[in-house]
Amino acid sequence: MHPKIKFKIDPKKDISTFFDFLKDAKYDEGRNFEWAILKHHPYFKKFNGEIDKKIVKDFVFKYYSKNKKAIEKNIITHENNWKKIEKDFFKLAHDLFLDTKWPKGKYIAYTTMWSMYPRFLDDKTFQIPAISKKKKVASFIIAHEMLHFIFYEYFLNKYKKYKSHKYDFFVWHVSEIFNVIIMNRPEWQKILKNKDDGYPEHGKIIEKLSKKECCIDELVDNIVLEVNKIV
């Protein structure tokens, strides 16, 4: 059995996500906050990181109100496009992980006006574009985040010493590298039709390990060895 994804529009989720990016800026030198928020919403630059919640709330609700019809239309398109590939996605995931069961969770895809699409491991929710010119990009994002959820279940059971450290950057590095290598394989590209270059700091590891076809256990072991060299 695999989970069924629900699709929701919730401006409050975007307010919360904004402050998640802002909070995490101190760990990634503001990179994700720049990419996710400031690049497409330069309005927030003038506040220099000192941003009142009411300012964000007003900005977000105004955006959702102004683009209400477009967002509603987009989320229907996203859901329909996902339905076209979900059977194939879950078959590939099953063949990859075999004995790993999908973890319990809400499995909700929320819309977001921001330019990055975070996942929330605790409740198995994530975000997809509220408005996107590339209509099928949401299906790729959904596949990416869903693969993360089952990968974390697999990884934290295999490497039990990380079970209490699932939010560590080490595990994040491993999961992101794993996703890019797997999703760029031909059988995955056949349904996704959208390649992922991953994060810049992972480029050399991805290039090196993508050349070697191997089972999931060996691949993950190799990723762990390589990540240990960079953290």
What would you say this structure looks like, in words?
The structure is a single chain. With 231 residues, the protein is of the alpha/beta class. The protein has one domain (6-227). Helix content is 56%, strand content 6%. The protein has nine helices and four strands. Strands 1-2-4-3 form a four-stranded mixed beta sheet, sandwiched between helices. Helix 1 packs antiparallel against helix 2, helix 1 crosses helix 3 (53-66) and helix 5 packs across helix 6 (169-183). The longest helix has 30 residues, at 68-97. The radius of gyration is 18 Å and the shape is globular.
Describe the largest sheet.
4 strands, mixed
How helical, in percent, are the residues?
55-70%
Percent strand: 5-15%
**Radius of gyration, in angstroms, nearest whole number:** 18 Å
Low-pLDDT regions: none
Number of helices: 9
Order of strands in the sheet with most strands: 1-2-4-3
Which structural class should the secondary elements be placed in? alpha/beta
Q: What is the straight-line distance between the termini?
A: 36 Å
Which series of helices and strands comes N to C? EHHHHEEEHHHHH
Tell me the total number of β-strands: 4
* Count of discrete structural domains: 1
Mean pLDDT: 93
Shape: globular
The quaternary state of the protein chains shown equals single chain
Short key terms for the protein model shown above:
231 residues, alpha/beta, four-stranded mixed beta sheet, 4 strands, globular
Outline of this structure?
This protein is of the alpha/beta class and 231 residues long.
